[in-house]
Amino acid sequence: MNGQKKILKIFRSAVAGFGAGSNRLAPYAVAAAILILAALLACEQFTPVDLQKRSLFLMPPTNVSVRLGNGYVVLSWDFPDTVTVKSFRIYRRAQSEEDFTRVGETTNKSYRDDYLANGSRYEYEVAAVSDAGVEGQHSKPIVAIPAIYSIQINDGALYTNKRQVLIKVTAPANTTLMMFANDSSFDGAVWEAFSDTKLWNLSYGDGEKTVYAKFRNLDDQEIDRPVTAKITLDQVAIISFIEENSNGRVLDALDTLHIRLGAFETNGRATASIVD
Q1: Which of 94, 116, 144 delimits the end of a domain?
Q2: Rounded CA gap, 154 and 162, in Å?
Q3: By percentage, how much of the chain surpasses pLDDT 70?
Q4: 245, 260 in Cβ contact below 8 A?
């Protein structure tokens, strides 16, 4: 192991000297580095995984994905658990920028980037950082466009007496798929082609109802969290009492009868019919 450490130190010095030497010596430095690397790999119990752990060549994070939000995006990625890293650095490039700029660093395999402009195009790269502070290779750039997604039931009405409602959808032009559900688990829900309106059946029973929706875009990127809208379904008018002031008398044609109905149907309607 002591020999490996010495070779490792020499190799690091050789790599660091690539930029320090003259162009005339560069081919010799490259050849020396290759020979040293071969010696390292030939050492007993010294594998490419050991190289990863020592951060000489940290691989790029893989399977980088994006979830979209209102003014933010959430990045997530994979990295081998066998490789010890200190952190991950996140780089971003806006549509109007030429170079990537580091915008954050995290010890997790996910990162939320806030305060973005909806509808603007951003590119992201992620790189691992070793315990020694050496930054590895960057992941392939991935594009993200944050946007506003929303739904509205029956033009924002507070109450309805019908289970079937009309949902209006607000989403960016690159939205391709949508999914609706009457609960947050989306159990049994399926993706369908995007449309800016949707006829939807609320769940059975009177009371406040919440409709949930998810969306995907052309890049198969999903929104970070479902959007929701609420409405109260009121199909049953419960009449608590009916009062009248005849006191049991038989009324004449010119008599006035006062009737009071108590239904407690706030923003709803309850009716009673008088028959001869």
Answers
A1: 144
A2: 11
A3: 78
A4: no
Please identify which residue in the block is written with the tokens 């509205």. Answer: 152
Taking the C-alpha atoms of residue 112 and residue 110, their distance in angstroms, rounded to an integer, is 7
The separation between CA 108 and the C-alpha centre of its own chain, rounded to angstroms, equals: 16
Beta 142-144 vs 122-129: how paired, if at all? antiparallel
Q: Which residues contact 167 (CB under 8 A, 6 or more apart)?
A: 151, 152, 153, 180, 197, 198, 199, 200, 211, 213, 229
56 located within any domain: no
Say if CB 129 and CB 85 are below 8 A apart.
yes
Strands 222-223 and 62-68 come out as parallel
Domain of residue 227 covers 150-233
Does a structural domain hold residue 191?
yes
User: CA separation (Å) from 225 to 2, 170, 185, 216?
Assistant: 52, 15, 12, 11
Q: Which residue has the tokens 């007496």?
A: 161
Q: Indicate left, alpha or beta for 82 from its phi (over 0: left) and psi (-120 to 50: alpha).
A: alpha
Q: Full-prediction pTM beyond 0.85? A: no
57 belongs to a structural domain: no
83-108 tens-digit pLDDT? 789 999 999 999 999 999 999 999 99
Same structural domain, 87 and 124: yes
Alpha carbon distance 240, 27 (integer Å): 95
